[in-house]
Write a structure and sequence with these properties.
150 residues; 2 domains; elongated; three-stranded antiparallel β-sheet; three-stranded mixed β-sheet; 21% strand; single chain
Length: 150
């Protein structure tokens, strides 16, 4: 690890501990040459997950896209930001536990709908209307009918 102050390559670790969210290791280091201290974070490197869209194109997985869709669906609903973050974490865990290099957007969309249905039915219908591209009011009525039967 190079010192950010003098660019010397010899540094020593003074302290190691988990970062606040336990997703990384925080290390306090000291440069042997200049004596200055600095902090580094060591994080697990994951393979990039590619998402296959409906039109067949591929793009890198982006958590913010799931988050944006869920936030729109939950707009003005009694759902806290913390609940949304937990929901996204659960979806993301399922996606990465599949251990696939590529995943269809349909798989992610279905996971989102299952989790939203558990969290808030109105948010679920909102998301489903965009995701499943409801064409008319009858499609809404059918989906609401399914919810009422359960």
């Amino acid at each position: 690890m190079k010192c950010p102050y003098c660019n010397a390559e010899d540094t020593k670790v003074i302290d190691s501990r988990p970062a606040e969210d336990n997703s990384a290791i925080r290390r306090r280091r000291q440069c042997i040459s200049c004596g200055k201290r600095f902090t580094t974070y060591e994080k697990l490197e994951t393979l990039p997950l590619m998402v296959v869209k409906k039109d067949g194109t591929r793009e890198a997985y982006d958590r913010s896209k799931i988050e944006a869709g869920i936030l729109r669906a939950c707009h003005k609903r009694p759902v806290s930001r913390q609940q949304i973050d937990v929901l996204i974490d659960e979806i993301e865990a399922k996606v990465f536990n599949l251990e696939e290099k590529e995943i269809d957007t349909s798989v992610i969309g279905e996971l989102v709908m299952v989790k939203l249905k558990e969290l808030d039915e109105v948010a679920y219908v909102r998301f489903a209307s965009v995701y499943r591209e409801f064409k008319d009011v009858n499609t809404f009525i059918e989906e609401i009918g399914k919810l009422l039967k359960k």
